[in-house]
Every structure is written in C-alpha cells, then in structure tokens.
Design goal:
By secondary structure, the protein is of the alpha+beta class. Helix content is 32%, strand content 27%.
Length: 298
C-alpha cells in the first residue's frame, strides 16, 4: 500500500514511529505537511496538490492534525476522502472530537458517564454556571485545546467568576466543569484501535499541578483497567466515529467518567509506559480494514 501521513513535522515521535511501522510492514509511506497542500475542489475530479504535484496515488491517509490547524487539516483530509482514499480517522469524526462542547453532547447522548458540565453565553448566567457543577473548586476549559492548554482550576467562586469574566472579554468559548477531587490528579489514557482497548496507562500530575498531561510534566505507568472502563472507552470512540482514539478517563466516586477523547493521540507516552508497539498495531488495523468502503466520502 501507499500510505500518506498528514503531519507538519516528520521528526515528531508519533509521526516517526508510524513511518517506521509502515516501512517495516512493507508499505510505501510519505509524510505530507497539510499546510503545504492546496486543492481543486470544483473539478469533476477532486484533487489535492502538494509542491506542484498531484497526490492521486495514495491508498490510505493517516491524519496527524494538530489542534491549531484543525479546520484546514480537516479540509485536506476531506478532499482525500472525496477522492476515495481510506482515512484512518474521518474528517467529520476529528472535528467532532476537537470541539469539546460538541464532543460532550455526543457522548452524553450515547449515555456515557461525564463530569457535570455547564455552558452559557450570557454574562448573567455566571453564578448559575458555577452552581450547576457543584460550586468551587471547578475546572474552566476553552472549547478548543489539547495537551492541557486552556484548562484552568478555579479554587474559589470568586476566582471562577474572574476567569469567566476574563474569557468573556476575550470572546472565548468555554465550559465550566465539575472538579473530581477523588481522582487525586490522576487520569487514565485508554488507547482504542478498531473497537478494542489495546493499551492503557495511568497519568499522574506533577506536584502542584492538577493536569496530568505528560506535556505538562506528568508521569505515566501502565495500568490494568476494568471491563466497565474498557467498554466505556470503546463506546466513546465509536460514538464519535473514531477508529483510533485516546480516551481519557477519571475514576470518580460514582464510577468511571470520560474526560476527553483525542483523535490524534500521541504514541510516545503510551509506548514508553507499556512497552507495546502501538504504531504497528495501527498499521495492522489499516491492513485489515483497507477494503472498507463504508466511510463517509467527505
């Protein structure tokens, strides 16, 4: 197969590992910077161009699209879908997962356990937003963001009101979310491929930090998760239409809760903590599903 990887930097660990896995399994692979692509969207034959050449011979596209380029990266991926190229994750599924509000609404409709979350536009609703999630401390999140960026813990009601007022002044869209104290700064990343959890790790925030993201100095160890946690992770990925996903879970007093679903989960932390070759598992999944024609073409 000829596989294209949409990534801005071939030296990023996850991109590099996917390239090596493709080559090890006998495939031709090329890393394409989506921001260097341009499209002919009006022709009878949809096409993606890159550095004056037509990209018309890929069998598969693996999207590794950063949050900062979600809109344009998804447009490029959608164009490949229009050309009949098999996407590891579809463009629609990626945009669903990147919008935290839309993602939580879809998960809620699927009956998946979530932290209590509130959202409003009017400044008159600030007090009710905080009360709805059980007062302070509470977590305030920008609707778009990854790796813990744009996530703030407000320890008091006054602090929450100040943060919310500041975000509204910036015309930013945000959620207010229940703080799960009993998680003790830990969460679980369940790595889902093709409707199965293939690896899981527990991440712990560094001292003085509540966000457990490895990019923010958190640490990770392999962990065995329960069937309930595994089933919830799989259901979350499937609800969003993702073939590959990193599902972040919290262990709460009322059972596991889904915190977030990542459509381009990093490989470095999960491979380092578990010792598993996740990159090869992803390529194997592609090999087993390349003949599928039930993905939505655009």
């Amino acid at each position: 197969m000829k596989i294209g990887i949409l990534s801005r930097n071939p030296r990023i660990y996850s991109t590099h590992r996917l390239v090596k896995a493709c080559m090890a399994r006998g495939h031709t692979v090329r890393v394409i910077n989506p921001l260097r692509c341009y499209m002919n969207i009006t022709s009878a034959k949809p096409m993606v161009h890159y550095r004056d050449k037509c990209l018309d011979d890929f069998d598969v596209i693996i999207p590794r699209i950063g949050a900062s380029i979600t809109y344009y990266g998804s447009a490029i991926l959608r164009q490949f879908e229009m050309m009949g190229v098999y996407p590891l994750n579809e463009s629609t599924s990626i945009t669903r997962s990147r919008d935290k509000l839309r993602c939580l609404q879809i998960l809620s409709r699927s009956g998946i356990g979530l932290p209590t979350t509130s959202y409003a536009h009017s400044t008159k609703m600030t007090e009710k937003l905080i009360t709805m999630v059980g007062h302070a401390p509470c977590v305030i999140k920008l609707i778009e963001g990854t790796q813990g960026k744009g996530v703030i813990l407000a320890e008091t009601v006054k602090a929450a009101e100040s943060v919310i007022d500041g975000l509204r002044q910036m015309k930013a869209h945000f959620l207010v979310q229940e703080f799960i104290k009993e998680s003790n700064g830990c969460d679980i990343r369940a790595f889902v491929i093709g409707g199965k959890v293939v690896a899981s790790m527990m991440r712990k925030a560094k001292e003085g930090e509540f966000r457990s993201n490895l990019h923010r100095g958190g640490s990770a160890i392999p962990v065995v998760i329960s069937k309930e946690e595994s089933d919830m992770a799989v259901k979350a990925a499937q609800s969003l239409g993702l073939n590959v996903a990193g599902v972040d879970l919290l262990r709460s007093a009322r059972g596991p809760l889904v915190l977030e679903v990542n459509s381009s989960p990093g490989l470095q932390g999960i491979e380092a903590s578990t010792g598993l070759d996740i990159a090869s598992m992803i390529i194997q999944h592609i090999e087993e599903n390349i003949e599928r024609k039930d993905f939505y073409p655009g």
